[in-house]
Amino acid sequence: MAEVTRNIGLSLGADICWPLCYEHLMKRLDLRIPVEGDTVRFQVERVTIEPFDLRQPVKYDVVIDRLTHWYHTSREWIKKAVVMDDLYVFNNPWSVQSMEKHTSYAAMMKLGMPIPETWMVPPKSYEATPDLKPTLAKYAKLFDLGALGRELGYPLFVKPYDGGGWRGVTRCTNEQKLKEAYDESGKSVMHLQAGVNGYDRFVRCIGFGPQTHCVLYDPDAPLHDRYTMEHDFMSASDWEHLRKVTLTINAFFGWDFNSCESLRKDGIWYPIDYANPCPDSQVTSLHYHFPWLVKSYLRWSIFTAATKKKMRKNLDWEPFYEIAATDMSASEKLDAYAKVAEARFETERFDEFCDTHLGHLDEVVWEFFASREAKEAVRQKVAALFPVHEVEAFTELFWGRLQKWRADQRP
Ligand SMILES: Nc1ncnc2c1ncn2[C@@H]1O[C@H](COP(=O)(O)OP(=O)(O)O)[C@@H](O)[C@H]1O
Ligand SMILES: [Mg+2]
User: Fold this and answer.
1) For the whole prediction, is pTM greater than 0.85?
2) Rounded CA separation 47/12 (Å)
């Protein structure tokens, strides 16, 4: 029985807290997992940024990547490693770079999900390029923004087609506001989206492989209070519904981790923002829910590395389209999409793996979040985000919420 090591790389940017917790916990877990006659051990390392030869082999089995969506050198190193070295990476870099909100809206409309009515409009202004004038003079049609606004109804939302982090999102309550928002959008290409007005629940569902977690979200609260600590804010069938929606979206786009925002109105869940494939993982926003996320990082990376799960290099949308084309009801279709997703994420095998090999993880994590190292991880993240005079108070605030989580989750 040979001892083999699986190497897990962390490709990080401004992340501070979750990688620290992840590394400490990997040490505490000190895993030795029997796989096909071998004993599998794990080595975790932060991936550095440096010149690389395209033929240079990659030592990692799995990379958890938080950089692809904006840092090109890391993205290209990862792409080479997937193509040449059989790397498994979360998330699929091609999918992250090419799938903005717009594509995700179009795809989920095609699958029959109740995405609010959405229009794209050409930008208000342009970078001057040699062909701009003849192109626009010949082909750009004058359009009536007011008429579009009347068609969608107010309040409506004006937001960048590839948005994220609330950049450039405006809620417009009338035509005047719509025109101002469009004028201010400048060179950005924008969507106009019908508002889901008067919703009674706003839920973020985080998906990590086959693991999902729903949080009641308060978009009007300050950043550190947006993820609420509410329990029992929806029924088990709502929970199941959002799980299926999230798994469908994530499997469709090849996203191992992502977070999906949905609004409920008159009993219907409207997904409004679900192209977040580098989801917020910071204790300063997730606080009470942070341990869930850290556990999910651990479980999914350990599972994929130990079992050498094959990376799905190409997206295969046909099974979803085939279901979409049937005359099944919307809920039957969602069940069928979710089945495809569960198969791609290997839910059953994953659950069995966790039961067999990671039965002690809950307790190790529960104990860890009382430790000096855990508190230090929180403090370091707070110190990076908050002014000096607030560091103490906010460290205590988030620490207190982690302790509340411990009290609620006592093994
Ligand atoms: N169609 C909509 N109906 C109601 N509220 C919306 C809608 N679109 C966006 N919002 C509000 O605007 C916020 C930001 O928009 P969102 O699409 O989530 O952009 P971002 O990608 O920047 O998070 C949402 O969290 C929600 O509060
Ligand atoms: Mg959002």
Assistant:
1) yes
2) 7
